[in-house]
Amino acid sequence: MTIPAGIVDTLKFILLEVIRQIEDTQKALDQGGDQELIAQIIARDEYIDNLKVYVENHCFSLIYSNSTVSIKAEADLIRAINTITGNLERIADHAVNIARQIPYFANRQFIKDYDYQNFFEIIRFNLKRIHKALFEQDLGLARKICTSESKLDRAYKRAFERILKELAKGKEVENLITTIFVLRYLERIGDCLLNIGEAIIFSVVGEKLKLSQFEFLEDILTDLDDLTIKDIKFAGIWGSRSGCRIGLIQAPKLGNKEFVFKEGLLHKIEEEKTKIELWNQQWPGITPHVLDYKVKGDHASMLVEFIEGDTLQHYLLDSSDSKLEESLGILEGTLKAIWEKTLDPNQKPPCKALAQLEGRIEDVLRVHPNYSQPEMLIGGMKIHSFRFRLEALQEKTKDLVAPFAVLVHGDFNLDNIFFENKTKHLKFIDVHRSDFGDYAADAAVFLISNFRQKVFEPELRSRIERSAARFLAFVRQFARTREDHLFERRLGVGLVRSLITSTRFEFHPDLAETMFQRALYLMDRLMEEKEDHPFEVPTSLFIF
Questions:
Q1: What CATH number has the domain bearing residue 261?
Q2: Rounded CA separation 511/368 (Å)
Q3: What is the pLDDT of residue 1?
Q4: Among 340, 339, 337, 325, which residue's Cα sits nearest to residue 470?
Q5: Residue 487 to residue 411: CA distance in whole angstroms
Q6: Alpha-carbon distance 95 to 91, whole Å?
Q7: Taking the model in full, what pTM does it have?
Q8: Quick check: 100 and 106 in contact, CB under 8 A?
Q9: Do 335 and 292 fall within a single domain?
Q10: Which one, 200, 426, 499, 533, has least CB within 10 Å?
C-alpha cells in the first residue's frame, strides 16, 4: 500500500508552514517585534491545527480499515506520520508562544546577546530533514533529527546559567525573565524533534525505541556480525516491571539465530550482568550467557543468549500432568544440588521479608487503600489494624536468621524458570536479585507465584494447589535434613511479604482480598507461636 497522496501532501504543507512559522518567529525577534508579523504568526496557528486534524483523522481511518492496511509495516508508517504531525503542530504552538513573549521585552534588542539565532538554525535545519528521513526510511537522518534535542538542551543550559548570574545582580529583570521564557520554548521544540526522529525510527524498525536504545542496539549489532538495524527483526518483550527495555532480535543473515537485547539504567544492567557471572561461577550453564555489554553515561545494554524453551508457568497452566511432574522433578533436583553445593554455614542471613514489605507498603496502599483500616471493636473484641500487626511481627522476628546461606535466585517466580526444549535443562532468567541468602525466601516467592495465577477453573486450580503442595513438601524435606528448625517461621514471614506485595499488581478484587486475608491470618498465627506450639505453614493456605 502507498500512503494516500492527500496525507503525504498535507504533511508537506504542515512542514512548510511550520518552517515558515519558525523563520517568521526568528524574523520577529530580529526586527524587535513587528506587531503585524506577530499577528500573522498567531493567526496561522489555527490553519496548522486544521491540517493536523485532517492528517490525524485520515491516519486513524486507514489504520482501522482492515481492507486498506494489510501488513504491520504499513500501519507503522501511518502511526509515525500521525506522531510526526502532532509534534509539528506542537512546534508551531511553541512558535506562537515565543511571538507572544516579544512585547514583554522592555528592550527589544536585549535577547540578541543570548545567541537565539543558533537555536533557530538547529531547529530549521532539522525540520528540513524530516520528509526525506521519513519517506526514504533513512535511519541516519532520523538519528540526526533526534540528536538536535541534546544540542538545544546544551545551548539552553549555557544561556540559563548565564541568565541566573545576571539575575543575581538585580538589573534588567524583565528582559532576563522574558529571555528565559523564549529560550525555554525553543528548548522544548527539541523535545518535539526528538519525538519526530524516534517516530521515524519506529517506522523502520517496527518497535518504539528511544534514541539511547537505538544507539545501543546499533553498536551491539555491529559487534555481533557487522549487522545493521535493517538486517534484523526486532520485537519488543513487554510486561517487564524492571524498567528495562527488553527485545528479541532475530538475525536472518545468521540463520535466523535469536538473541535477547536489554537496555536500561547502568546500575540495573550492571547488576544483572554481575549476577549472571556469579551464577556461572557457581553453577555454569544455569543462566543465559552475556554475549555483549555496552555502557554510555548512566545507561547500559547487553546482548544475551536466547533460550529456546518454555517457562514453568507454561508447564503449570498449558501442558499435561506428566510434563508438569517432570518439570517439577527437574526443578527440585537441580535446586537441591545447587543448595548443597553453595551452602555456607558461616553466613547467617537475616530474614529481610518484613523490611522489604515495609519498603513496598505505600505502593500496595495506593492500589488497595482499604488495607490501611484502623483498629476496630466488634462485639467487644479488638481487631488490630494492619499497621499494628506488621509492627508487632517486625518486633517479634527482628532477630530471625537462617542457619546457613545458599545461592538464591531472589525473584523466584514461575516465569523466571525456563526449561530448554531439546535438553530439558533448567535455566534461570532475571537473576539481578541473586545472592547468597535464605532459601526460605525463594520458596515463599515460588509458592505465591503459583497461588496468584489468575486462573479459576477448578481443574487448573487443583493443578496449582498440587504444585504448591509438592514444592512445599520438597523444601520442608531439605530443611529437615539440614536441621533448620526455624524454617517454618521464616517461610511464614516470607509468605506474608509475598502475599501482600503481590496485591499491588492485582486488580481482581477476590484474588487480591484473598491474598491479603491469608497474609493477616499468617501474621496472627506467627504472633501466637510458642515453644510448645511451633508455627507451621498450613498446606490449605494455597487452596483458593
A1: 3.30.200.20
A2: 12
A3: 52
A4: 325
A5: 19
A6: 6
A7: 0.84
A8: no
A9: no
A10: 533
